[in-house]
């Protein structure tokens, strides 16, 4: 076990680490770095970048949004992953034969990023949708919550077989409203029973299989007045108490429109942590990152020990492929190309 885990995950600007960024990630309150397409040129470059990061802060966690479909940050020299909706459609048409393929795609995604020393992907998406949400859509396996649960479980099994953690998102479900929380404040007027009988089903089924969960920047005004990220009802009562979730709760990016509240980023970080988030994620706003970091330094937060199991899973295995794994990777790649 590490001696201390911070509470902040942040981004960096480019394909190499600047002197300022080295100083920033050396701060013990920083537990992770999320990479974007701007940080990636090719596999050799990103390995060098991650070596720079981990040489500066050996225990830091490196994450990426490598979902598949339109959300795949690393593309050049990587297999172009299908959308989760495409996988869900295969499951719907022929579940018996498709389930092993879905597992293989999860394994391939995780294997490819692990070979570049990335610790995890923010995947899978557990939202229930087909074409309602402007931001989810084909990122979801299906608009059938039971099919989402079955397909996502297979995908998670593949990720775990590759030896890295998984992150389910966006709790308790972002698929039933059109608005995009990156640029808007989505609101869903349904009741708790309606949510439980639809959007919440995959999270309920899979809570014991997930290493981490990311809540949605959404408000359900007929259930709780606060956005989920800042809601003790959703994070502590529903997720921790009712669903018995024991893993890490990552906030989604606190610079998104859906996370805006009165006050600055210190206030956002304080409220997210108070409400039950273990890690706050801040991207594309260095001033906001520094404000949140100042809050963490000033308030002496305790070690975030819930991250230990996730950290252990991400570092528990070799990152070299044996011959059988190389053959499997090529077979899965070919099957994806033939979809």
CATH topology of the domain at 84-286 and 295-306 and 316-337: TIM Barrel
CA gyration radius, whole angstroms: 19 Å
Form type: globular
CATH superfamily of the domain at 84-286 and 295-306 and 316-337: Glycoside hydrolase, family 3, N-terminal domain
Strand content: 5-15%
Summed over residues and divided by their number, the pLDDT gives a mean of: 94
Assigned CATH class of the domain at 84-286 and 295-306 and 316-337? Alpha Beta
Placed side by side, the strands forming the largest sheet appear as 6-3-2-1-10-9-8-7
The number of helices is 12
The counted number of beta strands is: 10
Q: Mind summarizing the main beta sheet?
A: 8 strands, parallel
Terminal CA distance: 43 Å
SSE series: EHEHEEEHHEHEHHEHEHEHHH
Helix content: 40-55%
Unreliable sequence segments: none
Describe the structure.
The chain has a domain at 84-286 and 295-306 and 316-337: TIM Barrel. The protein has an eight-stranded parallel sheet with strand order 6-3-2-1-10-9-8-7. A two-stranded antiparallel ribbon has the order 4-5. The protein is globular, with a radius of gyration of 19 Å. The chain is an alpha/beta fold and 339 residues long. The N and C termini lie far apart (43 Å). It has helices spanning 19-25, 43-56, 84-93, 95-114, 145-162, 192-196, 201-206, 232-242, 265-275, 286-299, 307-314, 323-337, and strands spanning 8-11, 30-35, 61-64, 66-68, 71-72, 120-121, 167-171, 212-215, 248-253, 279-282. Helix 3 runs antiparallel to helix 4 and helix 4 (95-114) crosses helix 12.
